């Protein structure tokens, strides 16, 4: 019986040591950068939600790379803006999931933003809006932030 209890104790000890511990809540390394990117995210998606193509044009880099898990890679700023105009304007609204944003600095470049959002399509009002992950690479040129890469995962 003692041997069985010892084996049980060893097993429980081994099993619990191998468990993955909960990931701590995100704490920005650079609060100012975090807040700047939150403002840029809000600015871009306010323009997205309101079909403000002029603001989107200013924020999207000329050498944008947009990776979408369903539609693949798009590297044409013009094509992306045309797709937004045709498929998004006055139809789709993006909502950021509060508290989901993480921002990390990229030395001598800008920042990477990781988060979750949902989309509502007024053309499909009964469709379930499932949170999806996104990764955005922001580049700072002088005092201007530009989106250079996006990875959209649904």
Structure characterization notes:
The chain has 4 helices and 7 strands, in the order αααββαβββββ. It has one domain: Nuclear Transport Factor 2, Chain: A, CATH 3.10.450. It is globular, with a radius of gyration of 21 Å. It has 154 residues and is of the alpha+beta class.
Q: Write down the overall mean pLDDT.
A: 90
Number of helices: 4
The percentage helix is: 25-40%
Order of helices and strands: HHHEEHEEEEE
Integer tally of domains: 1
User: What coarse outline follows from CA principal-axis ratios?
Assistant: globular
- Oligomeric state of shown chains: single chain
What is the CATH C level class, in words? Answer: Alpha Beta
Largest sheet: 7 strands, mixed
Structural class: alpha+beta
Count of β-strands: 7
Which fold name fills CATH's third level, the topology?
Answer: Nuclear Transport Factor 2, Chain: A
Which stretches are low in confidence, meaning pLDDT under 50 for 5 or more residues running?
none
Task: Give the distance, in angstroms, between the N- and C-terminal Cα atoms.
Answer: 53 Å
How much strand?
A: 35-45%
CATH architectural label = Roll
* Radius of gyration using CA atoms only: 21 Å
Write the SSE topology:
Blueprint: H1 2-17, H2 31-49, H3 53-59, E1 60-68, E2 72-74, H4 77-88, E3 92-96, E4 102-106, E5 110-121, E6 132-141, E7 144-153
Parallel strand pairs: 1-7
Antiparallel strand pairs: 1-2, 3-5, 4-5, 5-6, 6-7
Summarize, please.
The chain has four helices and seven strands.
List keywords for this structure.
35% helix, 4 helices, 154 residues, Nuclear Transport Factor 2, Chain: A, alpha+beta
């Amino acid at each position: 019986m003692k041997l069985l209890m010892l084996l049980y104790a060893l097993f429980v000890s081994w099993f619990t040591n191998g468990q993955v511990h909960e990931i701590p809540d995100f704490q920005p390394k650079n609060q100012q950068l975090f807040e700047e990117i939150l403002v840029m995210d809000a600015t871009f998606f306010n323009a997205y939600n309101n079909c403000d193509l002029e603001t989107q044009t200013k924020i999207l880099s000329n050498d944008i790379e947009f990776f979408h898990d369903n539609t693949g890679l798009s590297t044409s700023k013009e094509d992306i803006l045309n797709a937004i105009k045709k498929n998004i304007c006055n139809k789709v609204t993006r909502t950021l999931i509060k508290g989901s944003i993480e921002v990390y600095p990229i030395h001598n470049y800008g920042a990477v933003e990781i988060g979750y959002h949902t989309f509502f399509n007024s053309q499909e009002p009964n469709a379930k809006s499932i949170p999806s992950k996104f990764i955005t690479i922001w580049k700072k040129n002088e005092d201007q932030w530009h989106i250079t890469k996006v990875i959209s995962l649904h």
